[in-house]
Amino acid sequence: MGLEKEFEKAKQWIDKSFDILTASGDLSVFEINIRYVGGFLSAYALTKEKLFLSKAIQIADLLLPAFDTSTGIPLALINVQTGKASNYGWASGGCSILSEFGSLELEFAFLSKITGNETYLLKCRKLREFINKMEKPDGLYPNYLNPHTGRWCQKHVSVGALGDSFYEYLLKVWLFDEKRDKSLWEMYKNAVLALEKNLLFKSKPSNLWYFAEMKATRIEHKMDHLACFTAGMFALQSLHETDENQRAHYLELAEKIGETCHESYNRTITKLGPESFRFASDIEAKAVRVHESYFILRPEAVEGWFYLWRVTGKQQYRDWCWEVVEALERYCRATAGYTGIRNVNSLPVDQDDVQQSFFLAETLKYLFLTFSDSTKIPLDKWVFNTEAHPFPIGTENERVAAA
């Protein structure tokens, strides 16, 4: 991006002022991993600056006590002062969350690759092998798992909040490992088939494809903005399908989900998408409740369109991204950055005065790459973690490791 001066200033701050050990209270293992460990590893891969690698190692080591359970399923929180791990008080039955413990392996695999220390990878491989052997209702992965008993806590299944990046990482770790681990591809394919069979629906009259949620035996016809990432996931999957029919099927699924997410934006007054949207006899891709109507600068829709642009070359995906750029400028621009808005269907907008960190890491990055040459971070050489930090695939890893 040509921001060399800004990069040097940030690097100096990290070197002199950033110290994870000053953090107090409980920290999210998942968030620290995808943002800090992932961010530093990506910075190292892109620059070969050893400072970033040392920070990634330090932080990852502090997360390891969370894995000390009878099943190897990590707890959600870690106190870096005491080394004590725990789970959220609000989580069902004190259980761990699928999207959180299922979104560690990409970073830990990369760290093991660079350092030669297998500890990180083996921790994640153990937990993956454990859940792979578990009985899964209708082939589905519920969102909550007890890390002590190794049993599902309740049958709540979602490809949005609480589930999302688990599926993403099955595919991306397989790609990062140069497709060598066939069990990953098999797990991913079986998981996706179960989602399609049980949670994929088509609305009337617009024929919008969407993923609903399952709560016990009840289907809730609601799709989170978070679930819009699946458009990108399926587009990426289509690139690696060897069967032509499967390739066409998953590209169609990607485009249909991408279209649905665009409709969730296009049907609002601000042309910004709500946090979640519903489907019923008289509703299609619209937020119904007040708490579903806010927009916090989330990236998943533009992430999906970025992948679809790269895979298909269709101009409409760039056009949809540009619509978001214009809406961001019109409604979210603030004095010192960008802010979320509390209701996408209300004017004048009520800004929440918060710029989420993923806006910089993901939303703006995917927009930038959508309008950049496709040789910048090509999808056959790099894989993005769930916070949009790019990791090099294959032989590129060896080059980084030798740096």
Fold and architecture overview:
The chain is α+β, with helices and mostly antiparallel strands and about 400 residues long. The strands form seven sheets. The protein has a three-stranded antiparallel sheet. The chain has two domains: about 15-160, Glycosyltransferase; about 205-375, Glycosyltransferase. Helix 5 (about 105-115) packs parallel to helix 7 (about 165-175). The two termini are about 25 Å apart. The mean pLDDT is about 95. It has 14 helices and 18 strands. The protein has helices at about 5-15, 30-45, 50-65, 100, 105-115, 120-135, 165-175, 180-200, 230-240, 245-265, 300-310, 315-330, 355-370, 395-400, and strands spanning about 25-30, 75-80, 85, 95, 145, 150-155, 155, 200, 210, 215, 220, 220-225, 275-280, 285, 335, 335-340, 380-385, 390. About 50% of the residues lie in helices and about 10% in strands.
The gist of it:
By secondary structure, the chain is α+β, with helices and mostly antiparallel strands. 48% of the residues lie in helices and 12% in strands.
Calculate the terminal CA-CA distance, rounded to whole Å: 23 Å
In oligomeric terms, what are we looking at?
Answer: single chain
Helix count? 14
Please give the largest β-sheet.
Answer: 3 strands, antiparallel
Mean pLDDT: 96
Structural class: alpha+beta
CATH class of the largest domain: Mainly Alpha
Count of strand segments:
18
Subcellular location: Golgi apparatus membrane
Protein name: alpha-1,2-Mannosidase
Binding site for Ca(2+): 386
Cofactor: Ca(2+)
